[in-house]
């Protein structure tokens, strides 16, 4: 993995991917006690950054692979990214999703043209289910983060942040990134290492699912004990990916950890101050910016909001409790 | 008023005003039965397009006027635009607001540094209150829509729409604009007349406050009978402004009218499909796009979302009922 792959992805994605703006509000600066910027990838096509990596990976497949079709597993954001990018390439897609995924994510993945196969997160093995279907039908598996083309696509966000921060007069910042398997975090870190060397990337995770933060401390890939039971479904992965982890070790950290209430409060702040909708897992970085700004260096924080695919009752709950 | 003033405003605002993206979703296209784009000015600084006109008008004042200060009346969006632009110019500001304005709008206007003077919308006369304070303190009044510099600032949205639509391959569209006094609608219409002549602008208003639609039919300025009692507070004005009306007559119409439930439903659709927060008055144009697409020409609609300053209970209500 290197910066050239990310730059090539940016060229490939141009005109297809939305260049999300860099948002800010004096009200958020006041809460954090530092200057805060938000990169709202919730405004990306399909409501999350995952469309970038999915489109880059699908664009690089051979025609024969696209014709046979694509398979992916995902709690819903990679799912929608793959479903949309596949349908745009006239490729059939099958998505293996946990049955407790947010309703909106399951519905939208189907509406974007994918065949959805549900499994039980506690008892089923998505790798086994996916491998069987892939083998039966000759489908190409696109993993959500252990895939260099996916990481390169996500890294294009880092190129945009570097440019937009420069336009805003920012030349040093702590960049906080919602982190599941580490595809987004590692791609952004590679892009910023090349294009904004004054920036330091910190992965952010929810309490109880801090495998990346612990792995960065111990120096080896650590596992989460639980596999479900968080409103931050988008970033609940068992462990950091094999491909992202060495990049995270080299360029990122330490990791930050926030509570679910911190996430709901950040969602309410984003509603009030920025008028964007963020899902709980996508709000961990803003949550850390607003509640733990003193734990990172410098006077400026750039937080990525990785997605906005939240069911209405959870969003209404965030507003009722914290807006 | 002409296009040169709008182009000069764009130059003046560059680097200060956010270039909001042009959003779309296959899910909205499906609801409308046409291609739908949203220009989300809710993502603008202060959460509404009003910052554009306010900044342009304040930039053109003489230093002596800025030093003495600015006065404005507004239910909350022009208020916040003036408050922020004034504070950035180190000018004191006084905003006369109705006491039933949304709490968030009153709070934010104060937080942005303005002195807020409340009046009762049914019994008080904001013009009289404003004129007295202005005269006592030597303040300069910046009207919300009967001001050429304000209209020119709002018109910069039309320049952006023309460019962004061209990038999206759209060369003919019906452009739906939330309309109160007509400042935004007339500015956008002037910009599109010059830069996107295949586009037709339609003002959109809530039921019971359709003064502009009726004025366009009768050919003279009509009044609303009610002055309050709508969740669409942002666009509840007594009648179209003297300066915008001839422009609306020449370039716009017919006007469209939507119900409050149409607005709440559009807010829920924007939450689900685009991840942006729109206030009821800012959602009238999207509401018309989703429910009355057959009433306008062509296969493509561009709707402006003029603001996102909505109190949490109203937004939660929209989600509970329609998401």
Q: How would you describe the overall organization of this protein?
A:
The structure is a homodimer of 323-residue chains. Chain A has 323 residues and is an alpha/beta fold. The first copy, chain A, has two domains: 3-48 and 147-322, 3-Layer(aba) Sandwich (Rossmann fold); 50-141, Rossmann fold (3-Layer(aba) Sandwich). The first copy, chain A, has 14 helices and nine strands. The first copy, chain A, has helices at 3-13, 26-32, 50-59, 63-68, 77-88, 103-111, 126-137, 148-167, 183-195, 211-218, 244-251, 260-273, 284-291, 312-322, and strands spanning 35-40, 70-73, 93-98, 115-119, 140-141, 173-178, 199-206, 256-258, 300-305. In chain A, the strands form two sheets. A five-stranded parallel beta sheet of chain A has the order 1-9-6-7-8, sandwiched between helices. In chain A, α5 links the parallel β2 and β3 (93-98). The radius of gyration of chain A is 18 Å and the shape is globular. The A-B interface holds A 15, 18-21, 23, 26-27, 40, 42-43, 45, 47, 104, 108, 111-112, 167, 268, 271-272, 274-278, 308, 312-313, 315-316, 319-320, 323 and B 15, 18-21, 23, 25-27, 40, 42-43, 47, 104, 108, 111-112, 167, 268, 271-272, 274-278, 308, 312-313, 315-316, 319-320, 323.
Key attributes of the depicted protein:
four-stranded parallel β-sheet, five-stranded parallel β-sheet, 46% helix, Rossmann fold, alpha/beta, homodimer, 14 helices, 9 strands
